[in-house]
Amino acid sequence: MKTRRFCPKCGRPVLKSHNDKHYNNYSFQCFSCDEDFFKTEVLRKKDLVQVRLLQHTTLRYELETGTHNYSIYKPYPRHNV
Questions:
Q1: Tens of pLDDT along the chain (81 residues)?
Q2: What is the CA radius of gyration of the chain?
Q3: Of 48, 52, 62, 67, which one has the fewest beta carbons inside 10 Å?
């Protein structure tokens, strides 16, 4: 499901939260940051320049520290099988 919304911390796509009715009305969740966000907190497609900058800095930081486990394009974690 494409939401066209992005995490304000890492720039990755977020998914609609399944806990929105039961847990503080959060609308979106980022599996990479392991955080939930309200509708007003996430970045939208119109903020694409800021999203690309966040994605670039996040990817660079994760590659330097060796903690790169998630794709910046897919909103779910990759499972190594």
A1: 565 899 999 998 888 887 645 557 888 888 888 888 998 999 998 999 999 999 889 888 888 888 766 676 665 555 544
A2: 13
A3: 67
29: nearest Cα among 61, 69, 70, 76: 76
Q: Is the distance from CB of 13 to CB of 75 less than 8 angstroms?
A: yes
In DSSP notation, 8-49 reads TTT--B-EE-S-TTTTTT--EEETTTTEEE-TTTSEEGGGHH
How is the chain split into domains, by residue range? 5-65
Burial 51-69 (b: 16+ CB within 10 A, else e): beebbeebbeebeeeeeee
The model carries a pTM of 0.75
